[in-house]
Amino acid sequence: MSGHKRIHVGEIATVHGVRGLVKVRAFGDDIRTLQDFGPLYTSETGTEKHTLTLKHQAGGAWIASVDDITDRDVAEKLRGTQLWLDRDALPELDDDEGFYHTDLIDMKVVGIDGKDWGLVIAVENFGASDLLEIKPAGQPSFYIPFVDMYVPEVNMETGIITIDMPEGLVD
User: Fold this and answer.
1) Which residue in 116, 122, 154, 171 is a FRET match for 48, CA 20 to 30 A apart?
2) All domains of the chain, ordered by start, with CATH?
3) 9 versus 120: which is more confidently predicted?
4) Do the strands 49-50 and 108-111 form a parallel or antiparallel pair, or are they unpaired?
């Protein structure tokens, strides 16, 4: 993976209290990503970084301190800040452990019948489960549930994802 590829791992939602703490939403399964792999970038391509220290969970968010900020007014300026991590900062996974969703982007998608369905352009989760967004050449993209029933194989070695297209999903 290229060291220049960044993963969107969270955002600073709002301030919390008067001592400069913030509420942070994590976009991955492991909240530790927000503090354990070094400073986080504030954009996909920029150089500005912040270091978070997680304090405790508060509903669906986490309370965190940012750098040495101890003032609510200064923390307020961080509201809405997106948090990005270099892909290469994440530990490599063994074959048994699987893959990171970001590694699926741009993989080729073929049906169990060999039909070329296009490329994965995103992995989304709108609340129910993960979805692969697939973009066929010259056609609109579509979503398929990222479950074994519809995605029986992800071959990281060949860069090919095999799907069993549900009837009626795509015209």
Assistant:
1) 122
2) 6-90 (2.40.30.60), 101-163 (2.30.30.240)
3) 120
4) unpaired
- Largest CA-CA distance found in the chain, in angstroms, rounded: 60
Query: Helix, strand or coil for residue 93?
Result: coil
Residues 6+ apart with CB under 8 A from 75: 15, 20, 21, 22, 66, 69
As a whole-number percent, the residues of the chain with pLDDT over 90 amount to 62
| Whether pLDDT at 159 is above 90 | yes
In angstroms, the CA 49 to CA 14 distance is 18
Residues 35-83 pLDDT 10s: 898 899 999 899 999 999 999 998 888 999 999 899 999 999 999 999 9
Distance of CA 56 to the CA centre of its chain: 22
Residue whose structure tokens are 């990503």: 33
- Residue listed under structure tokens 């194989």: 153
Minimal CA–CA distance to 61: which of 126, 12, 110?
12
Using CB atoms within 10 A of its CB, is residue 170 exposed (0-12), middle (13-18) or buried (19+)? Answer: middle
